[in-house]
Amino acid sequence: MSKELIRLSELTMAFDGEVVLDSINLVINDKEFLTLLGPSGCGKTTTLRIIGGFVTPASGDVYFDGVRINDVPPYKRTVNTVFQKYALFPHLNVFENVAFGLKINRHEGKKLSKQEISSRVLEMLEIVSLKGFEYRDVSSLSGGQQQRVAIARALVNKPKVLLLDEPLGALDMRLRKDMQNELKRIHEAMGITFIYVTHDQEEALAMSDTVVVMDAGKIQQIGTPEQIYNEPVNAFVADFIGESNIVDGTMISDGIVEIFGRKFKCLDTGFAENAPVDVVIRPEDVDIVDVKDGMLTGTVTNITFKGVHYDVIVDFKGFKWLIQTTDLVTVGAYIGIKIDPDGIHIMSKSDYSGKFGDYSSYSAEYDEISDVEYEPEEESAEEEMYEA
Ligand SMILES: Nc1ncnc2c1ncn2[C@@H]1O[C@H](COP(=O)(O)OP(=O)(O)OP(=O)(O)O)[C@@H](O)[C@H]1O
User: Fold this and answer.
1) Which atom of ligand 1 lies at the shortest distance from residue 16's CA?
2) What is 243-384's CATH topology?
3) Among the atoms of ligand 1, which is closest to the Cα of residue 46?
4) pLDDT score for 20
5) Using CA atoms, how far apart are residues 312 and 300, in angstroms rounded to an integer?
6) Which of 68, 104, 222, 334 lies deepest, with the highest CB count within 10 Å?
7) Which positions, given as ranges, span the membrane (predicted)?
8) Atom 20 in ligand 1: residue holding the nearest Cα
9) DSSP strand E in 16-72: where?
């Protein structure tokens, strides 16, 4: 069973009267790779800095191995940090930069022999795949190599936890991907806890055991990458993790939701009858079909080739559906769309208005015309409801 290492309890932080962390409760297990993920300004770095001891929370507690450490200074915590800017010493070579991590190590409180320093530095350089680079000038290294030196320096005194604040932010896309794999490997090789901060959802999903999605100083969801992607708890998480179509809905009964004036089968939800809900539909769960077979119909307004699929925008009475498909369609085509019940996710109504602005206005616009075009024509409730 996983063992608890760090516990954040009711953490709150404010700067200049502005609340930036609001009742953060989080348990981080020993050896876990946990990522704090969220948009800029949501409080990820502040949370990390509180764990590192660089920021004191306004209220709440930080526990390490069951001991409250609010008042323990950073250098006495068995935690090291890697930042986006590597801050290597340009006048020192790779070996000396990494060895510097040992010199500033005050946890162990003992002086190491030259031989011990050498063997620890070489061990770390091997772990970050920089064996043979000992005597290179750091300025002669690529961005990815420099970041690996910074990681080796942070790991050389064997902290229990490594804090990583957007460490790959300065690297280009290709290098980022390589370094993501490297970091996963280094995490496994070291067998310690990594707490990683990023606003890049792909990066978070690719590397982490646990993802903590934050927004506006609050934790929105904690889960495995699969849980966060497949079972987002609200419209914000669904939209932030991957792309989503988010529409206003009303529960008709368990397993049936009304959107745009039509009834759709959805997964059983347990929401009360008539409850207003957010209905979240992933673009890959929307199929393009013939107009006669469509649950809804609309006009293709935009197509973007994405390599493995096309992003197709379909305008439905002002609501822009995002559809990911390999079907060939053309701009201006009038098409039908179909959604499987298991692609229709029901979530508690939030005031989140989506990446693209206020989506609630789309259904309001639709309501005005719904009586004319979409009122079911004397169908029984059963017929009126679309089957997958
Ligand atoms: N020292 C500070 N003084 C004043 N405001 C601060 C300070 N540090 C952070 N903030 C504010 O707190 C909020 C949260 O900042 P934080 O750096 O934790 O967010 P973040 O999620 O890490 O964002 P980013 O990805 O942009 O770094 C922001 O509004 C930021 O401006």
Assistant:
1) 4
2) OB fold (Dihydrolipoamide Acetyltransferase, E2P) (2.40.50)
3) 18
4) 95
5) 7
6) 222
7) none
8) 41
9) 18-29, 33-37, 59-64, 67-68
Residue type, 135: Y
Q: How far is CA 296 from CA 249, 259, 262, 326, 329, in A?
A: 15, 10, 9, 20, 16
Q: Kindly list the distances between the CA atom of residue 25 and the CA atoms of 11, 146, 223, 242, 299, in Å, as whole numbers in the listed order.
A: 7, 35, 14, 25, 46
Q: Ligand 1 test: best mutation among 11, 24, 40, most atoms within 8 Å of CB? A: 40
Whether residue 353 is predicted with pLDDT greater than 70 in this model: the reply is no
**Nearest CA residue ID for atom 6, ligand 1:** 15
Cα of 237 vs centre of ligand 1, distance in Å, is 20
Q: For atom 9 of ligand 1, which residue has the closest CA? A: 46
Return the best residue to mutate from 13, 19, 20 for the ligand 1 pocket (most ligand atoms within 8 A of CB).
Answer: 20
Question: Does the pTM of the predicted model rise above 0.80?
Answer: yes
Percent of the chain with pLDDT over 90: 65
The best mutation among 12, 15, 198 to test binding of ligand 1, ranked by most ligand atoms within 8 Å of the C-beta, falls on 15
Spell out which residues line ligand 1, taking CB within 6 angstroms: 15-16, 20, 38, 40-46, 199
Task: Output the six-digit token pair for 74.
Answer: 């950073």
Domain 4-230 sits in CATH 3.40.50.300: yes
**The pLDDT of residue 298 is above 90:** yes
Does the ipTM surpass 0.85? yes
Residue bearing the CA closest to ligand 1, atom 18: 43
Q: Which amino acid, residue 352?
A: Y
How many angstroms separate the CA atoms of 81 and 162, rounded?
Answer: 6
HEC per residue, 111-165: CCCHHHHHHHHHHHHHHCCCCCCCCCEHHHCCHHHHHHHHHHHHHCCCCCEEEEE
